[in-house]
Write a structure and sequence with these properties.
With 183 residues, this protein is mainly alpha-helical. The chain has one domain (2-182). It contains eight helices and no strands.
Length: 183
Amino acid sequence: MTGMHHMLVHFPLGFWALATLMILVGAFLSGRMAELSRAALLPVLVLSLLGALVAIITGFTVWPIAANLASPLARNHILMALWSLGIFTVITVLVWRAGDAAFYGARRWALVILALVGGLFFAAAGTLGGHLVGAPTMFSDVLGLMGWAVYTTFYSPLWVIAIMVIIGIALGAFGIISQRKTA
């Protein structure tokens, strides 16, 4: 299953990278390209979630769960993969529920922020996965600058948790403000 997992992880990563680009184009540009990006985003997100679920399931079959939990590197890899899945699930629900309105007002900023944070998380998941198979990348140095020693650290640095709480509060406030404006 190891080879299967390595092959399958590229589908959600590619779709998430494409979705992030489509969100940026749809949120900040106008014209036909922006319209196409907004219209095609939901199918790309749905495909990314299906691919991510399959990749995560096959990932759990690579090594026994006890081995995964014993390694800080493997735990961080799993944590980042699950956070990425969670963030892009939220983006998918937002786009599905709001439709084209997701690209206007406060929702646009929610999409952009979530996409950029999700992009950072899936890049970290991929980098840590590369370490697990003996293929580290230069992005590991970026993780080190952010406070992670990839082979020993198993935590979310305090500044990451603080930013996540601030983003959550800000997005909640944007949602309430947007809801009041439309009511």
